[in-house]
Amino acid sequence: MRIFSLVFIAMLSLTTFAPASFAATVKVVVNGDTITDYDISQRAGFMRLERRGKSNSDRLRLAKEELIDEALMMGELKRIGGSISDRAVNDAYNRVAVTLKLSSSKLTEILNAAGVQSTTLKEKLRAQLAWQQIVKQVLRQKVQISDLELDLAAREEVGETTNYDFMLTEIVFLNTTGTTRSRTNEANQYRRNFNGCDNAVDLALSYRDAAVRKMGRRHSTQLAKPVAQELAKLNVGGISKPRTIASGVQMLAICAKTAAEDLTFVKNKLRNEVGTEKLKDEAEEYLATLRERASIEYR
């Protein structure tokens, strides 16, 4: 939700909008639930704070469709026996305020100054919580990813130059003294004299502010691609070229290297990525189906 612009708009504008005083007129009926012109106007006002929509008329159109979707969400949650408590909504409202570094009362004040009631945001949050519950209860079990799919995708992702497991030791020449250039020169000298991980610490004692740390096991896909590609070309006992990092100049020494047969790490990463994408597609399709089956009367 793009609500961060709320603060900037409210701070830049000194105009206070008076609440509308007209009687609300029903504009849409969704499965028996009504949406009024006041609901639409309020949501369009909130969208203006989010900087959504190209014009007022565009925002009114978007607001109407968004409110229809949310009415469908709330109706579906009720159908499956779920509910969202006022406490859960208030907690979500408070989290929005905290994210904006505001108190809840200040957030309400900012909304009111723009002519938007806090209930407008709260009802939007209620619908979001409802949809999250629907996705968890109904859709998540539908998203199945076969191990064969994951195996094929994992092998394709790792490729020839990244399908390795390493035991690595990190050597960093810290930027506490000297320039990056002088530290790089010292690192290159260390690299020329390096003869294996067992002597990494002893060799480092010959240099000022050189730190040695065992990184443990790393799969190629856990490393930056250029680093993984460089290490793939080195043998055990080799050491990478110096690279500048925030704390100084870094090199990685290979203490052990094996062709990776266990793709668990890559598969878990892909499972999350593919699962999230499939769940998103399922949710969009589910909402579209709810729309198709709904009774929506525009007035």
TrEMBL record:
- The membrane-spanning stretches of this chain are none
Q: Which UniProt keywords apply?
A: Isomerase, Signal
Which GO terms of the molecular function aspect are on file?
Answer: isomerase activity
- Keyword Ligase in annotation: no
What domain of life is recorded for the organism?
Bacteria
Q: Where is the signal peptide?
A: 1-23
Name of protein: Peptidylprolyl isomerase
Name the species this protein comes from.
Maritalea myrionectae
